[in-house]
């Protein structure tokens, strides 16, 4: 990914960057304890190329702000959204609120987090440094990021369209799922299947926010079966046909 910036920054001036944290425990079976993708800001200094990081300084939150940073209005809004995402995590609620009645259910947290991502999207379009990190748990997110753990990424404004294909394979049918952006059909990335987002096999670090929670849930299910649902033809009528008909009504279906 290329970055073209016109603003001159010396090597010692901290810049703000935003890291998407993608929790691995989202794939565990206990719903209420699952975490959801969120964003956290951090500060860094740049190499001479003004593109890559020289040093990663510190994660930022409401308790660890930096006086060295000059934030614009969009970044202030984005930082508030980041804080809301953090406070919506199971980790934060468990650590800060002992009253179980306060805790949101996973479904409630999921809906709120998706709404927060939709609010964050316009702000992210103008951010110069976006990163992605797989994490094992939010309790490990303290101090500063580690260079080896983060990758530059991009969050696009385009909305992905889900595309389904019913493929005749002799004794089997395959129901395949792909997505389309700006008329271009893509396979989903085999890894980095972040909830709420589509990413292509060719560019797994460019993320597209889904149009709806229903899209996100459906893709999350298909990601567990490598985006291909196989079924014997003799079981199609009784097991898969009603589901395929619903898919066709909602998303359309190409038969091959």
Helical content (DSSP H or I, runs of 4+)? 25-40%
Number of helices: 5
Shape: globular
Radius of gyration: 20 Å
Biggest sheet: strands side by side, in what order?
Answer: 3-2-1-4-5
What is the domain total for the residues? Answer: 2
Average the pLDDT over all residues and give the rounded result: 88
Structural class: alpha+beta
* DSSP strand count: 13
Order of helices and strands: EEEHHHEEEEEEEEHEHE
What is the distance, rounded to the nearest whole angstrom, between the alpha carbons of the first and last residues? 35 Å
Strand composition percent:
25-35%
Q: Which consecutive residue ranges, at least 5 long each, have pLDDT under 50?
A: 1-9
User: Mind summarizing the main beta sheet?
Assistant: 5 strands, mixed
Question: Brief description of this entry?
Answer:
With 256 residues, this protein is an alpha+beta fold. The protein has helices at 73-87, 90-96, 106-124, 213-223, 233-251, and strands spanning 15-23, 38-46, 53-59, 130-135, 151-152, 154-156, 161-169, 172-181, 184-186, 197-198, 206-209, 228-232, 254-255.
């Amino acid at each position: 990914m290329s970055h073209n910036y016109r603003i001159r920054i010396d090597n010692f001036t901290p810049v703000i960057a935003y890291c998407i944290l993608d929790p691995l425990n989202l794939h565990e079976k206990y719903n209420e304890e699952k975490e959801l993708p969120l964003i956290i800001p951090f500060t860094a200094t740049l190499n001479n190329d003004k593109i890559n990081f020289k040093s990663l300084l510190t994660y930022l939150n409401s308790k660890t702000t930096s006086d060295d940073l000059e934030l614009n209005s969009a970044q202030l809004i984005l930082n508030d959204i980041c804080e809301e995402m953090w406070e919506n995590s199971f980790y934060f609620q468990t650590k800060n609120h002992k009253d179980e009645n306060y805790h949101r259910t996973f479904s409630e947290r999921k809906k709120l987090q998706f709404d927060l991502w939709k609010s964050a999207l316009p702000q992210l379009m103008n951010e110069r440094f976006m990163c992605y990190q797989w994490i094992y748990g939010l309790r490990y997110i303290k101090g500063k990021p580690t260079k080896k753990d983060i990758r530059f990424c991009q969050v696009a404004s385009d909305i992905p369209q889900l595309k389904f294909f019913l493929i005749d394979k002799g004794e089997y049918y395959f129901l395949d799922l792909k997505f389309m952006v700006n008329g271009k059909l893509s396979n989903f990335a085999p890894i980095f299947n972040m909830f709420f987002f589509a990413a292509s096999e060719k560019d797994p670090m460019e993320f597209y926010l889904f149009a709806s929670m229903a899209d996100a849930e459906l893709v999350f299910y298909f990601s567990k079966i490598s985006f291909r649902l196989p079924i014997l033809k003799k079981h199609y009528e009784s097991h898969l046909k009603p589901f395929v008909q619903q898919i066709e009504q909602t998303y359309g279906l190409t038969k091959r």
